[in-house]
Design a protein that fits this description.
Gyrase A, domain 2; Four Helix Bundle (Hemerythrin (Met), subunit A); Rossmann fold; 3 domains; 6-stranded mixed beta sheet; 14 helices; 13 strands; about 45% helix; binds guanosine-5'-triphosphate; binds magnesium ion
């Protein structure tokens, strides 16, 4: 981290302003070469915005800019940081960037600013990941979860579990150092309770993994049913535009069609499929049906559409196994009347033509994946796949430790398992070093962040 990095931090395009960033020990020296203002840069106070000009090698003005100095450690990365707000033209921004590089800065790697912030103790790993989630958030609840993780909610919980584990390890290891002392029953019971409590806390965090996955990737919601019942019409009605072809011919949709949309603040990946029927001689249709089946296997929610305007027998239902998080039955075409054979069925009456029942369906979709949790004032934690792997390892180690304890194994063995759990929990926030983990996380960032 001895070098100074530079990046264009805003998306390159025509805009009101663009922002370039420098971070590292040479930030001021590099900026001083190309920045002209009423006062010398080194005399400008930290955390102030200063008006001036960027000049090229010949002293010609490239742009009029605002420059902000954040002297370390009171900066995003913890190092000396300089931010230049220039006019947002592609050419002018590139020109300033080139000047930064030709004056000694190195082009930053993706996520390198945030990586430095982490390495300088400005944030833990979960917070660094939250920066990325925040930038990518597409729905209200995803954004909320990301900002709460950025505040350190998950990091605090992981650190607190780690602290408990540390004390527990210390306690158990005390018995290793004094082998003549047996663990007396009172202490034994207390240790057991503490192990169980840590295990429960790990399980509680692990339970949020499903929500985390849905917030980050969307709930995969597959619309299925017999041909011609209005599946594509439903996709179009929910997404609000003519995404899929609708026609009175059975077998219109041959391939799967995806559309991302947000319902009650949650991301959904809606998948329209080829109508399911038992016998078809058409090769393309049977391939479509095969794809439908594959989609059904990986669905979070399944929306089964039937034609509610005809009898149950005529609108033959296709047997589907429920999705991981629910199975909703929609009785479509109720504008043409709901056939008496459907009452009292559990399906949701709806009409893609008039839009009746769509709101109820949206609520049912939300409830299927969220069960009303995650209201704005609730404490929301939703772990990602990396956290899940770490906590899973920790939980397994705790199980082994508890078992070792039950079977009166040596304190060494118990301590060994506890240390394993400690290592895994430490990896969540980056308290223990794991080079390959850092590489994997920060390479997913955008440049300049
Ligand atoms: N009356 C009425 N007709 C509808 C409704 N929804 C869809 N339809 C009609 O039903 C026919 C089939 O609609 P699609 O959306 O193409 O049905 P699909 O299930 O996607 O059909 P396939 O792709 O062939 O499996 C079209 O003629 C639609 O206009 C509705 O709510 N009411
Ligand atoms: Mg269709």
């Amino acid at each position: 981290m001895s070098d100074t990095i530079a990046a264009i931090s805003t998306a390159l395009g025509e805009a009101a302003i663009s922002v370039l960033r420098l971070s590292g020990p040479e930030s001021e020296i590099i900026a001083e070469q190309i920045f002209r203002s009423a006062r010398l840069l080194r005399l400008l106070p930290s955390r102030t915005v200063n008006h001036g000009r960027i000049v090229d090698e010949q002293g010609c003005t490239v742009d009029e800019v605002l420059l902000t100095i954040f002297r370390g450690p009171a900066s995003y990365t913890g190092e000396d940081v300089i931010e230049i707000s220039a006019h947002g033209g592609i050419l002018v921004t590139r020109r300033i960037y080139e000047l930064l590089l030709s004056n000694g800065a190195r082009a930053a790697e993706p996520g390198e600013f945030t990586q430095r912030a982490f390495l300088n103790g400005k944030m833990d790993l979960t917070q660094a990941e939250a920066v990325m989630d925040l930038i990518h958030a597409q729905s209200e609840l995803s954004l909320q979860a990301a900002s709460q993780q950025l505040e350190g909610r998950l990091g605090c919980e992981a650190d607190s579990i780690r602290e408990d584990l540390l004390q527990l390890v210390a306690h158990v290891e005390a018995y290793i150092d004094f082998p003549d002392e047996d663990i007396d029953p009172d202490t034994g019971a207390a240790i057991k309770l503490r192990m169980e409590s840590i295990h429960t806390r790990l399980r509680t965090l692990l339970d949020t993994a499903e929500h985390g996955r849905i917030l980050r990737s969307g709930a995969r919601t597959v619309i299925c049913g017999a041909p011609n019942v209005g599946k594509s019409s439903l996709l179009n009605a929910l997404s609000g535009h003519d995404r899929a072809i609708v026609s009175p011919h059975a077998g219109t949709t041959r391939d799967t069609i995806e559309e991302v949309l947000h319902i009650h603040g949650l991301p959904f990946v809606l998948v329209d499929t080829a109508g399911l029927r038992k016998h078809t001689s058409d090769y393309i249709e049977s391939e479509g049906i095969e794809r439908t089946r594959r989609e059904l296997e990986r669905a979070d929610v399944i929306i089964e559409v039937v034609d509610g305007s005809v009898s149950q027998d005529e609108s033959h239902r296709v047997p589907v196994t429920p999705g991981k998080r629910g199975h909703l039955v929609v009785l479509n075409k109720t504008d043409a009347g709901l056939h008496s054979s459907w009452i009292p069925s559990t399906g949701l009456p709806l009409s893609c033509q008039t839009g009746a029942g769509l709101d109820q369906l949206r609520t049912a979709m939300r409830d299927a994946v969220w069960n009303g949790e995650g209201s704005p004032d609730s404490q929301m934690v939703a772990i990602n796949a990396r956290h899940q792997r770490c906590f899973q390892r920790a939980a397994e180690a705790m199980e082994d430790a508890e078992e070792a304890f039950e079977h009166d194994c040596t304190p060494e063995l118990i301590a060994f398992e506890l240390r394993d759990a400690l290592q895994a929990v430490g990896e969540v926030t980056g308290r223990v070093d794991a080079e390959e983990v850092l590489g994997a996380i920060f390479s997913r960032f955008c440049i300049g962040k």
